[in-house]
Amino acid sequence: MNLRSRIMLGRLRLLLGAGLICCMAEGEGLATTAVRPVTTPFIRGSDALSHMRVDPKGRFIAYVGDSGLGLYLVDLKSKGIFQVSGGQIGASFVWSPDGYRLLYREQSVAADGQISSEVKAYDAALAQSVTLDKLAYPTGFLTLDPRDLRLQLLGPQGIHTKRIYFPGQRLARWQIAQRNENGKFLATQQGMLWETQAGFALRRLDDDQSGVESFDISPEGASVAWATKAGRVYISKGGKTPRLIGQGRDPRWHPDKPMLVYSGARMVGNTVIGYDLRLADEDGAGRFLTSTQFVDERWPQWHPRGHQIIYTIAKTTDIFLLDFTP
């Protein structure tokens, strides 16, 4: 780098640090979102948060510790925090449609090094977990298809399926017959898979090959968005060739509209300098919602009514609320 380039880069860093340039983003130029200071958290927990997920009724938030260990539940009314599991969970948990049952896959390592998995359900009303399945091997992420309410995991012996019946969610035969389904998405630590022919055919969806960090299947089950460990967000609709949305993490689908909120990367050249909340449609077009300096806004979640976004700041115990206006 020559002297002139070093001087220009130094000036840019000064402007960024002062908050005078707030929204430079890849492919967007300068946006108009003003710098919004970090406000008082809505809830302050006891451990750093990751993989936050709000239940379909908007009553609870489930999250795991920053290390991927431990599964916790926050009651948004009482603001009480409860530990569901102390095991290795990672991204392997999902809410049932009724909003009161948290389904999760817990992995453990025996003294001889053998890894086993258990599929469990935590009843938020009873504050109690029950075991649904025990598997004597490690598995991929727990994946729930919202079209048929079927839990799936990929293991060394193939796809393990568990059909769960929820109160008020049982599908009639005519609904099953008219359901338009060409395949299913199946998430693993190594990549996102497209499953057809009742699980006999699996195809890995193309991405940067760094592994899956987080994922979200759209409410109608037709699309999936996932973030890789290298920090890129992809979307696939109906198992078709994935589209790269951009640099970022933690994508979540809007409950009613075909758009995402995710932690969008702020870039200077090829370097990520932070993460802010960003909206995007299925083609990647969108805008940043926030612009904060020296903090990374992570794990955004939609309130079920779509009027608020719930998120955290990386490496903190705090949960924040952001009112959303389309």
Strand content: over 45%
In round numbers, the mean pLDDT is 84
Can you identify the CATH superfamily?
TolB, C-terminal domain
**Helix content class:** under 10%
Termini separation (Å)? 43 Å
Shape annotation:
globular
> How many discrete structural domains?
1
* Structural class based on helices, strands and sheet pairing: mainly beta
Rg over CA atoms, rounded to whole Å, is 20 Å
Which strands sit side by side, in order, in the main sheet? 18-19-20-21-22-23-24
CATH architecture: 6 Propeller
CATH fold category name: Neuraminidase
Describe the sheet with the most strands: 7 strands, antiparallel
Number of H/I helices: 2
Please identify the top-level CATH class.
Mainly Beta
What string gives the helices and strands in order? HEEEEEEEEEEEEEEHEEEEEEEEEEEEE
- How many DSSP-defined strands? 27
Low-confidence stretches: 2-38, 174-178
